[in-house]
């Protein structure tokens, strides 16, 4: 399944981007990365992204704002939130586009398998 899906990792922390990129590439996914929302939207505009793993605190555009813009450009793309904010609450605007608390992951993850399972679940329903 993985070889037909491209994942976007949007995080302003280089080490987080590189670690997630290496992990998902090892799992057989093709990965694109971006450090801010504007670069992420340019990647979304290609139409090739099946799923985005999005940090919430980004320079310029917040992650939730990015997801709303990206969803408008590419409604078929799925999103997961990967945030360091332990008190993060899913905004109603993201609930309105179908996201749930099951789409939110708090950094650092002790078990990357949980994130992998969520990615595979979302892409299995794509």
UniProtKB/TrEMBL annotation:
GO MF term list: DNA binding
Gene3D superfamilies for this protein: 3.40.50.2300
In-chain residues carrying the UniProt-annotated modification 4-aspartylphosphate: 55
Keyword set, alphabetical order: DNA-binding, Phosphoprotein
Domain called Response regulatory: residue spans: 6-122
Pfam families, sorted: Response_reg
PROSITE patterns recorded: RESPONSE_REGULATORY
Annotated GO biological process: phosphorelay signal transduction system
Protein name from the UniProt record: DNA-binding NtrC family response regulator
Taxonomic path: Bacteria, Pseudomonadati, Thermodesulfobacteriota, Desulfovibrionia, Desulfovibrionales
């Amino acid at each position: 399944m993985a070889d037909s899906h491209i994942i976007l990792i949007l995080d302003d922390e280089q080490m987080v981007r590189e670690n997630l990129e290496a992990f998902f590439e090892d799992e057989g996914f093709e990965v694109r990365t971006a450090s801010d929302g504007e670069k992420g939207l340019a990647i979304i505009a290609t139409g090739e992204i099946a799923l985005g793993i999005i940090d919430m605190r980004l320079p310029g555009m917040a992650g939730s704002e990015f997801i709303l813009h990206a969803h408008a450009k590419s409604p078929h793309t799925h999103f997961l939130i990967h945030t360091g904010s332990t008190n993060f609450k899913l905004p109603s605007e993201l609930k309105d586009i179908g996201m749930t608390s099951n789409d939110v992951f708090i950094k650092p993850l002790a078990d990357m398998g949980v994130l992998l399972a969520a990615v595979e679940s979302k892409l299995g329903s794509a």
